[in-house]
Amino acid sequence: MQHLSIEHIGQWERFYRANFINCLTGYKSVSLIGTADVSNRPNLGVFSSIVHIGSDPALVGYINRPLAAAPHTLANIKATGIYTINHIRPGFVAQAHQSSAKYDAGVNEFEAVGLTAEYKAGIIAPFVAESLVQYALKLVEIVPVKHNNTFLVIGAVTDVFLPASAIQQDGFLNLPQLETVASLGVDAYFTTELVARFGYAKVDRPIEKL
Amino acid sequence: MQHLSIEHIGQWERFYRANFINCLTGYKSVSLIGTADVSNRPNLGVFSSIVHIGSDPALVGYINRPLAAAPHTLANIKATGIYTINHIRPGFVAQAHQSSAKYDAGVNEFEAVGLTAEYKAGIIAPFVAESLVQYALKLVEIVPVKHNNTFLVIGAVTDVFLPASAIQQDGFLNLPQLETVASLGVDAYFTTELVARFGYAKVDRPIEKL
Fold first, then answer.
1. Average model confidence (pLDDT) for chain B?
2. pLDDT tens sequence across B9-20
3. For B26, which of A29, A90, A167 is closest by C-beta distance?
4. Contacts with A81 (C-beta within 8 Å, 6 or more apart), sequence order
5. What is the mean pLDDT of the segment spanning B91-101?
6. Residue A172 belongs to a domain with what CATH number?
């Protein structure tokens, strides 16, 4: 095991260091976030810091980079209060990654990257038609992270769209069946294979494999 | 695609719903967090909501559940300001999962679940010896999430320990080589396989596969 101090890491070239630090936290739940501005112009961006906040109420967070670096998605969420999160499949990882390019505010990223905006009744934000797990959220809280001017954006899930066959007997989702990818660092995408599921852990009995 | 409204989901049985909602955000960067209390008694817990906050400074966050549900790790972090995060390998996923059991404050979870506490010079929190990616953090900010009494706990990376051979030419970490698992829901662990890495996305040129 090599020991790397933060002082040592701090001397590395900027992109080398960013790759390293971005990988350190492990695999991430990358998804495409769809929004619309007040004129109903669609916007699409890829976000790899989506985090489960709570089940009841069903709250989902994501980290939005400083506004100067990533303004459009958060501006639209603030303006309309509604957004969609869409899982990514191996068949469109290139298009998903391309949506991280800094398009101008007026550009429709769906068209620019080659994905299909899908609209559903009563939800003003666009979904990604190619995705097999799509959900809509209503903004509940934007929590500023003072230390680096990022924001934890928290939404309440309002609607979920997926193939019913992927919901297992106990509510668990078969994401390999739905082709959901994980990400790593700023540019890598992975498929997955199940190692094991375990029962609820108790202090007084051995762990049970499901 | 089946449409599930949150009103419909809200009527589901509690554990079924929790499995479903916990899977909705996709794969997670599960790790073991090691802490010590002021009397140097070690504590270990598994956390699956670790999130990259920023690269420079290198900041890592995790969501701590309400204090009544998960008190020990956060109490120790508040008391000492120091903690470790350790990736999980398939060979000890059962032990890692067992650390989610609600052990009393005095219990040494390393011993209780069968993992090895490893101490390194100058760092008071224990590492997991079986892990191939270990890093230490210094607490910088605890951000309360008002909507469900959770906390975004943010630390600055101070030291990283891993096999040098896993660092690729551009700083990217070969986590499959290090056997790092991803998690899904509250109880599932996965290995991964690379689909693709892509170059930095630009608006005026096609995406490039690395």
1. 95
2. 999 999 999 999
3. A29
4. A138, A139
5. 97
6. 2.30.110.10
The one-letter code for the residue type at B175 is L
In contact, A126 and A119? CB cutoff 8 Å: yes
Residue A208, domain member (yes or no): no
Q: State how many domains chain A has.
A: 1
pLDDT of residue A67: 83
pLDDT band at residue B131 under the 50/70/90 scheme:
very high
Interface test with A, best of B2, B8, B24 (most A CBs within 10 A): B24
Give Cα separations from A198 to A160, A206, B12, B97, B98 (angstroms). 26, 11, 22, 7, 9
Size of chain B in residues? 210
Q: Does the residue B1 lie in any domain?
A: no
Taking 50 as the pLDDT cut, the residues of chain A under it are none
Do the domain assignments include residue A32?
yes
Whole-structure pTM value? 0.95
Residue A113 inside a domain? The answer is: yes
Domain of B73? 27-190
Helix ranges (DSSP H) in B1-155: 6-9, 14-24, 72-80, 93-98, 109-113
Q: Which residues in chain A (135-194) have CB-CB distances under 8 A to chain B?
A: 135, 140-141, 143, 145-148, 150, 152, 154, 156-164, 167-168, 170-173, 175, 180-182, 184-185, 187-194
Where residue B105 falls among pLDDT bands split at 50, 70, 90? confident
